[in-house]
């Protein structure tokens, strides 16, 4: 069993990722650290707790950073609504639940120390919690098998013309993470996610699944798939679940080593991941960057794993 930790800002695509981790047969899921991102922390935390309760996930949930390291909070509520995820059907019901601890950084540090083996660290939100963990204890990089993140891009952005949302929301944190000594990094950016396209027929597939849990999921999936066009005819990339899909089927992805730097100053380019593939001894790579995927097979993999999660409850 591979020990794994998830840092997330749920978010509908974070939700799919959580279900995929729960269904994976060879993972020991140690915990979730929640971060502000898609919505403010109280909302992303409430979403994590709703998902955990309604889908019977047995994993501790810890409240993390409410603000980026510098500057003001940036959310995706403009696109995703106040809850950070919309539904065209019945929304996932509210729950009365509390985080297992109010200090996700302390919880992550404790988990890294306690694990017998290095931990696979998955990050699918702004990198604030991860940066704070590494700042507090840089030697913990050796306890992380690999940091696998959804964020950045080798090409254009989504939140701004140059920047992807997770990096834009806390560029200083991303800068710390990409420069942390001794940390292995694997980046799934927009260039990859834009090959993994959710189409109308995928939504219809989920709409046919039985039971209330599938129905909540279908309502949110439908709204998510319509982000690019109200009639859903323009396919929508899947972001966070590609990280979990890689855990299931790594052979479906190709990678290239690169030196990734995060723009923290640019007037138009703040939060951009500048990916230099001309690596050399003088300028070594600091990340494996996902470049290619069998997109249709990855989408099928995501839906299959999510369906398995539903069947396990
Ligand atoms: C990323 O931003 C968030 O809105 C998604 O959950 C994903 O992590 C995509 O840019
Ligand atoms: Ca996310």
Structural features, described:
- It is built from twelve helices and eleven strands.
- It has a nine-stranded mixed β-sheet with strand order 3-2-1-4-5-6-11-9-10, sandwiched between helices. A two-stranded antiparallel ribbon has the order 7-8.
- The protein has a single domain, classed as Alpha-Beta Complex (Inosine-uridine Nucleoside N-ribohydrolase, Chain A), CATH 3.90.245.10.
- Strand 4, helix 5 (128-136) and strand 5 (144-150) form a beta-alpha-beta unit.
- The mean pLDDT is 97.
- By secondary structure, it is an alpha/beta fold.
- Helix 5 packs across helix 7.
- It binds beta-D-ribofuranose and calcium ion (CA).
- Calcium ion binds at residues 8-9, 11, 13-14, 37-38, 124-125, 240.
Tag the structure with descriptive keywords.
two-stranded antiparallel sheet, 313 residues, 11 strands, nine-stranded mixed sheet, binds calcium ion, alpha/beta, single chain, 12 helices, binds beta-D-ribofuranose
The distinct bound ligands, ions and cofactors come out as: beta-D-ribofuranose, calcium ion
Global Rg:
18 Å
Largest sheet: 9 strands, mixed
Any idea of the CATH topology? Inosine-uridine Nucleoside N-ribohydrolase, Chain A
Kindly summarize this structure in a few lines.
The chain is an alpha/beta fold. It is 37% helix and 19% strand.
Task: Write the topology of this structure.
Layout: E1 2-8, H1 12-23, E2 27-34, H2 41-54, E3 61-63, H3 77-80, H4 104-114, E4 119-123, H5 128-136, E5 144-150, H6 165-168, H7 171-179, E6 185-188, H8 190-193, E7 197-198, H9 200-207, H10 212-225, E8 236-237, H11 241-248, E9 253-262, E10 273-276, E11 287-293, H12 295-312
Parallel strand pairs: 1-2, 1-4, 2-3, 4-5, 5-6, 6-11
Antiparallel strand pairs: 7-8, 9-10, 9-11
Helix pairs in contact: 1-11, 1-12, 4-5, 5-7, 9-10, 11-12
């Amino acid at each position: 069993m591979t020990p794994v930790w998830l840092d997330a800002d749920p978010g509908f695509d974070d939700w799919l990722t959580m279900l995929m981790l729960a269904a994976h047969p060879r993972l020991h899921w140690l915990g979730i650290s929640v971060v502000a991102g898609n919505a403010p922390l109280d909302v992303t935390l409430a979403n994590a707790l709703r998902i955990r309760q309604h889908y019977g996930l047995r994993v501790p949930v810890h409240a993390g950073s409410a603000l980026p390291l510098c500057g003001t909070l940036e959310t995706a509520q403009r696109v995703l609504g106040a809850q950070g995820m919309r539904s065209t059907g019945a929304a996932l019901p509210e729950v009365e639940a509390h985080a297992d601890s109010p200090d996700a950084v302390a919880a992550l540090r404790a988990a890294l120390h306690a694990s017998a083996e290095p931990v696979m660290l998955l990050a699918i939100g702004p990198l604030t919690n991860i940066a704070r963990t590494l700042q507090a204890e840089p030697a913990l990089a050796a306890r992380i098998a690999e940091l696998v993140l959804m964020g950045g891009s080798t090409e254009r952005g989504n939140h701004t013309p140059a920047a992807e949302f997770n990096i834009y929301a806390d560029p200083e944190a991303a800068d710390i993470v990409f420069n942390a000594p001794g940390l292995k990094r694997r980046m799934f950016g927009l260039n990859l996610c834009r090959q993994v396209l959710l189409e109308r027929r995928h939504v219809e597939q989920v709409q046919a699944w039985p039971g209330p849990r599938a129905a909540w999921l279908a309502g949110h999936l439908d709204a998510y798939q319509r982000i690019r066009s109200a009639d859903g005819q323009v396919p929508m990339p899947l972001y966070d679940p590609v990280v979990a899909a890689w855990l299931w089927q790594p052979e479906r992805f190709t990678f290239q080593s690169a030196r990734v730097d995060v723009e923290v100053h640019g007037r138009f380019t703040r939060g951009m991941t500048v990916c230099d593939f001309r690596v050399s001894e003088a300028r070594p790579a600091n990340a494996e960057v996902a470049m290619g995927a069998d997109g249709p097979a990855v989408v099928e993999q995501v839906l299959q794993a999510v369906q398995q999660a539903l069947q396990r409850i």
